Amino acid sequence: KHAYGVGMTNIQLDFFGPIPAVLTLFDTNGTTVLNTASSDTQIWLSMLATNAGTNYARAESEGAAATGSYDLVLSDYGTGDAYEMDNSPGTASNFVVGVSQPHSFHWTGDTDYSKFTNTANHLYLIAVTDFGTTSLSVTLYDTDGTNTLKFENNMADDASFEYVLVPTGTYYVAVSYMGVPTGTYFLAITDKGVSEGDMYELD
After folding, report:
1. Residue 35: enclosing H or E segment and its boundaries?
2. Who has the most CB within 10 Å: 81, 127, 162, 174?
């Protein structure tokens, strides 16, 4: 079980102007897509290899017969922490409200997603502490995993925010680094009880 990063850097593709490149990672069967992305500057993808074998990567231009060059980079990030691969809402790790959970960053673009179930109309404190990166961004997502409820950027040292979650459901917290792509931190989610505000909080 190792995490790998595959990247395209220094992308310089042209077809009457800059053309994005597309990088796709495949499973060991060569057909099942694990991850894909496009960009005209650089692309970083990650994958978790649970079994030994040969995986495949395809680099191509997006929708045109472009010419040019790029650098292909492959990195072995090791085993990661106990929660990898938690890089999307679909692979978010389960979080038990009321505890403090250790996490770590391992590669460029590493974002850690956690999910938790709330009690209706309760105020929640989301805190990130003891991290060694330059600064972090923390996002609280609605139950769909995409709609942003709260976003805090450039959080340095110990940082936290509060939010009233009205309907009961599964919510998501994403933590990403800004700066050095390695380091550790602790995530804590605390139920502060029924909000003392009105039905319009947080307004």
Report:
1. strand 33-39
2. 174
